[in-house]
């Protein structure tokens, strides 16, 4: 692979990525990284930036691309991404998605895409998967989730590092990645789906982000992203507190809390304790508000509250019990 100078044109974007990598402990010297490249300006910029950084950090980069087959030219774009990445000396991993027609198209496309990236990550022994999310993506995600009434953890949106996913460009505006590609004469493809108002992200970008920036200026979008970052910090801190309390309160009976001890902690912590006991199910917060309200009032004896996935919460005289599906069935027999 040909080395690229770390300085020169576009260096402010490289500097921002270096700062993000260092501040968030995204990578160490000698790491293997899977770079998700769609062919758009953000991901083309990301690959070039990491290529430049690799000369300093001795990184090994693998390029991964998913052809979703959602546009007439998707196969052509996949070919271009693969050819250019291979010519630059990268190992390239490309897959064609199955037919994704049907409801919730974007969610299923995202699930397939990240499933493929995880496979490549495992096969290559990579430290993580680098995606080209920008500061705009962070602001858009927070606004989109605000519209749906999300709680703090979800409202915080995208994080610089989250599991095996890293986002070195999260402090960079989308306009900056495009300008980077144009300055360095890097060819990219504009996805028409980015302006298709049938998709929520495009609607948020067009109907919310653009008017906000027009009225309050570029700083407003950065301010939204800063608020998202602070929400993430606060949510993580509350989560850590709840995790330690959970271990103490359920030490003798998993999923069962002394009612008095649960009532003694703030509602926000109480919510997280119950969500932890409920486990990883879709919309696990659904129904918990009713439980919290009941705990602050005078619930009837053995009050029961149905939750997603067949789970239940029972408020007994001295304790609050989260029943998982099998336990809930057994309790009714």
General description of the model:
The chain is α/β, with parallel strands linked by helices. It has two domains: 11-229, HUPs (Rossmann fold, 3-Layer(aba) Sandwich), CATH 3.40.50; 251-332, Uridine Diphospho-n-acetylenolpyruvylglucosamine Reductase, domain 3, CATH 3.30.465. The chain has helices spanning 11-23, 41-57, 74-87, 105-124, 135-147, 152-155, 174-183, 200-216, 218-249, 259-264, 267-278, 288-295, 325-332, and strands spanning 32-36, 60-67, 91-96, 128-130, 161-162, 165-166, 256-258, 303-306, 312-315, 319-323. The model has no long low-confidence stretch (mean pLDDT 90).
Number of strands: 10
Total domain modules: 2
Question: Averaged pLDDT, please?
Answer: 90
Helix content class: 40-55%
Task: Write down the Rg.
Answer: 23 Å
- Taken in chain order, the helices and strands follow as HEHEHEHEHHEEHHHEHHHEEEH
Number of helices: 13
β-strand percent reads 5-15%
Low-confidence stretches: none
Strand order of the largest sheet: 3-2-1-4-6-5
The CATH class of the largest domain: Alpha Beta
Q: What fold name goes in the CATH topology slot of the largest domain?
A: Rossmann fold
